[in-house]
Every structure is written in C-alpha cells, then in structure tokens.
Design a protein that fits this description.
This protein is α+β, with helices and mostly antiparallel strands and about 170 residues long. The protein is built from 6 helices and 9 strands; from the N terminus they run E-H-E-E-H-H-E-E-E-E-E-H-H-E-H. It has a 4-stranded antiparallel sheet with strand order 1-4-8-9. The protein is globular and about 40 Å long.
C-alpha cells in the first residue's frame, strides 16, 4: 500500500540521517474507504493525489508548530504492507482525518518511492498559510483564503536519491 507521510525539511533530514521515518506510531495518508467514498472516483492516480494533498495539509500543520523549519511542505511516499497501515473505521467523509492511517512502527527510508516538496517560490505563501492556520481553524474566512493559497502550489517530485540535496 502506498502511504504519504507528512514531514518538514528538518524531519526529512532526521529521517535521512536515521535511515528511517519514525519512531512509530506514524500518521500518514492513504487511499482509505472513506477517502474513496468522499472523492467519488475509481481512478487510483486521482485518489493517490487526493491522499498526497491531505498529507501536504498535515505537513502545513507541522510547519505551523515548528517556527524554525523552512516554510516548505514535505511529503514522503512510502510503500508499506497492506496490514501495516490502519485507518480509523469511525472516520467519516466529513472528518478532518479523511484518508488518515496509522503505522505502528518506523518505516525504513529504503521503502520510500518519492519525496514531494514545495518549491522555493512557494515559501512565502506557505509561511503565510502556516501563520493563518489557527485563525482559519476558528472560522476566519480571510485566513482560510490564505491557507488555501498554499494549496495552489504543486509539490515538486524528487527521487529518493535526491534527499541529500534537499536537506543540506
């Protein structure tokens, strides 16, 4: 099963140094039954893209809590055994945890398929979105507009072999 693990650049650097993403339990995003029902599509690429975007939103939340991290969202796509990722069966379609899965243990970085990172051009919008996240969570429409602005930036695709260049 392909899962999308939200990180920050310092988190990616730590994973690279340790050779694994962890420790567990990890929160990741995947094509869950609830995500499939919410997205109403049978196209696996579209569903995986939706899961990737959910992980990017979680990465933004991590950035909001880590003021020292570069303002770039990071998601690592990892292949894990199907039984390694567990979705909450109570997570419904309207849930903030849509597509969320738990992985009990650390995941070897060798299982990563790709890394997705914001471009440097996105940093200003991502920084503004991280700053506005709290107000958006409390219903501020202007703040939500700023948060949505970060989503206008597509994450760039990197091969796993490119991680050293991303973290140094």
């Amino acid at each position: 099963m392909r899962v999308y693990v939200p990180l920050t650049l310092p988190g990616l650097a730590q994973a690279h140094k340790a050779g694994e993403i962890g420790p567990g339990p990890l929160t990741a995003y995947a094509v869950t039954p609830a995500l499939r029902e919410w997205y109403v599509s049978d196209d696996i690429e579209e569903l995986e893209y939706a899961a990737l975007n959910r992980a990017a939103a979680a990465s933004l939340r991590s950035l909001a809590g880590d003021l020292g991290a570069p303002r770039r969202r990071v998601v690592v796509a990892v292949d894990v055994p199907d039984n390694a990722a567990t979705a909450d069966p109570a997570a419904g379609i309207g849930s903030a945890s849509l597509g969320e899965v738990r992985i009990a243990t650390a995941v070897p970085l060798a299982k990563a398929a790709s890394v997705h990172v914001d471009s440097q051009e996105a940093e200003r919008d991502v920084a503004a979105a991280a700053d506005a996240l709290g107000a958006a969570d409390h219903g501020d429409d202007d703040a939500q507009f700023v948060v949505d602005g970060a989503e206008d930036h597509e994450l760039l695709w990197y091969g796993v072999q490119e991680i050293p260049g991303l973290v140094h």
